[in-house]
Write a structure and sequence with these properties.
alpha+beta, 5-stranded antiparallel β-sheet
Length: 295
């Protein structure tokens, strides 16, 4: 099934020459699989839940393909999506223009969400009005472990922005919010950053956080939960962990290194032997950044 809105063609067939797409159940495995197809994919638009199934819209050639996990979406979802786009024509603009680049290779990725998301302080919104953004930090070589969440109301145009988690510096937040992406869209400029790390933009703007974590964010939550069960001990610094990761990378084969079940125990053993310390909860994120940089 196909439908067209404002010159954009959506299809629930599989793209030519593609039997299946990887789903993001395992972040590291997704990175490995994605490298095989990234040269042919222009961009991935959405990866979210629909009736308990991940829905992904992938721009491939001159069409946008609607997929559920490793197969094409059902016609009933295509009808829902078609109606959502025709009732909210501003979303097509985001599909066309949602990705902005900077000179250093960093970029911002926008996502259209289908269905409903329950947001704190605001009850429920139809998620067809939600545009989510994620930032690729080219200097780090991986997706930054935070996201900007924006709620756009077509009746009263406004953006509500928030960053998560709070590990990002205010200087970096200000730098991102003042980029050409925001200026080009509505002419917004940063007015202030409050004590909760919310960015206040000039105009009708209220910061809001939708509490819908990225897959990397879920990994953070899991590692934090495990760490909370242990007593606080002597934890290695990020520099020490990175040094251990590179030593393990030289020792293991490429296939072994991209397998976290093999690499992470080896990294933990290296840190313990070299420094007599335990891994910090950021170790897995550091490992993923090295894996991504090497692919």
């Amino acid at each position: 099934m196909e439908f067209e809105v404002d010159g954009v063609v959506f299809s629930n067939e599989m793209p030519p020459g593609v039997k299946k797409f990887p789903h993001i159940d395992g972040y590291a495995q997704f990175l490995v699989n994605y490298q095989k197809i990234k040269d042919r994919v222009w961009y991935i638009i959405v990866e979210r839940k629909y009736d308990g199934t991940n829905i992904r819209l992938v721009k491939w050639g001159d069409k946008i393909y609607v997929l559920t996990r490793k197969q094409a979406a059902e016609n009933r979802f295509m009808n829902i999506l078609c109606e959502a786009f025709k009732n909210n024509p501003h979303l097509i603009t985001h599909v066309k223009q949602f990705r902005r680049h900077w000179g250093d290779g960093s970029y911002l990725v926008g996502e259209l969400v289908s269905g409903k998301i329950k947001a704190p302080y605001t009850s429920q919104f139809q998620a067809s009005n939600l545009i989510l953004f994620e930032y690729w930090d080219n200097s780090m070589g991986h997706f930054a472990p935070w996201r900007i969440t924006s709620y756009y109301d077509p009746a009263v145009p406004e953006f509500r922005l928030c960053f998560m988690p709070d590990e990002i510096s205010k200087d970096l937040m200000r730098q991102l919010a003042e980029t050409a992406w925001l200026r080009d869209y509505e002419g917004f400029v940063v007015k202030a950053i409050d004590e909760y790390n919310h960015i206040i933009l000039r105009g009708k703007v209220k910061p809001i956080h939708f509490n819908y974590p990225t897959h990397e964010g879920q990994l953070y939550a899991k590692s934090k939960k495990k760490a909370s069960k242990k007593k606080k001990g002597n934890v290695a610094s990020e520099e020490e962990v990175l040094e251990a990761i590179h030593k393990v990378k030289l020792r293991l084969s490429p296939e072994e290194f991209i397998n976290p079940k093999v690499a992470m125990p080896a990294i933990a053993a290296e840190v313990k032997e070299e420094y007599g310390k335990d891994l910090p909860r950021t170790a897995y994120r550091l490992y993923l950044s090295v894996v991504e940089a090497g692919l």
